From TrEMBL:
<dbReference type="InterPro" id="IPR020471">
    <property type="entry name" value="AKR"/>
</dbReference>
<feature type="binding site">
    <location>
        <position position="109"/>
    </location>
    <ligand>
        <name>substrate</name>
    </ligand>
</feature>
<comment type="similarity">
    <text>Belongs to the aldo/keto reductase family.</text>
</comment>
<feature type="domain" description="NADP-dependent oxidoreductase">
    <location>
        <begin position="31"/>
        <end position="260"/>
    </location>
</feature>
<feature type="site" description="Lowers pKa of active site Tyr">
    <location>
        <position position="78"/>
    </location>
</feature>
<dbReference type="InterPro" id="IPR023210">
    <property type="entry name" value="NADP_OxRdtase_dom"/>
</dbReference>
<dbReference type="InterPro" id="IPR036812">
    <property type="entry name" value="NAD(P)_OxRdtase_dom_sf"/>
</dbReference>
<keyword id="KW-0560">Oxidoreductase</keyword>
<dbReference type="Pfam" id="PF00248">
    <property type="entry name" value="Aldo_ket_red"/>
</dbReference>
<dbReference type="InterPro" id="IPR018170">
    <property type="entry name" value="Aldo/ket_reductase_CS"/>
</dbReference>
<protein>
    <submittedName>
        <fullName>2,5-diketo-D-gluconic acid reductase</fullName>
    </submittedName>
</protein>
<feature type="active site" description="Proton donor">
    <location>
        <position position="53"/>
    </location>
</feature>
<keyword id="KW-0521">NADP</keyword>
<dbReference type="GO" id="GO:0016616">
    <property type="term" value="F:oxidoreductase activity, acting on the CH-OH group of donors, NAD or NADP as acceptor"/>
</dbReference>
Amino acid sequence: MIENISALLRLNDGMEMPGFGFGCYKASGPELALAVREAVACGYRYIDTAAYYHNEDTVGEALRQSGQPRETLFVLSKIWPTDFAEPVRALEQSLKLLGLDYLDGCLLHWPGLDDARRLRAFEQLLRQKEQGKIRVLGVSNFLAEHLSEMRDTFGFWPALNQIEVHPLFSQAGLCRFCAQCGIQVVSWSPLGRGRDMEQPVVRELAATLNKTPAQILLRWHLEKGLLPIPKSVHRERIRENSEVFDFRLTSEQVAALDDLELPDGQGRMGPDPLTYPR
């Protein structure tokens, strides 16, 4: 388990990345630029964006303005399924917008509905990894069957799987599967878009531990070996989200948060990977 915000995790491909990140979904313009610079100032070293977010140019400029040396940053972006036919072109476009020579992390953003196209896209990105354009290659929103298909095709598991995870929708089975396969789970929407923070159990723990509900939830991710990427454009919340390394949750407290899981996937907020994008 990581002990500070910039501590590194070793992945199944032998590479390392920070075990805590800053998400950039649904943020843009000067507001996002300020947020990214503030995040770097608070110690975040993993910055997560995507072509689909339409903000890679802003993220790249903000990182340059931050003054943080490039080699200390882990910049991750993603390729949308409609670009799976030409993933190299999509990668080059992301690099151009970000102003980078390589991506520290590159993910297939969703599995999409075309198995053959998905596998061809990953194969082409593997060649880009061999050429140094990508350091860590992974996937996002993939289910166990998608991951197994990749293992059967390429002979290894992806390094990362970024999925929706929060107590109301913990995807415990998928997280266990990834852990057994050595795949690092990255948690998007780790605070449940605010809904999980309103749960009485979360608020009670926050009061007991003199922490905020957001800090309780982020600590839950860390205790479970997950890599959360909270997003905020508010300076105080960006800093607050980073201050989760001076306390621990007991196994009983983790279990109490686990019990918040809603039945039959009712806690899911994002789309179903088996049917999205249409």
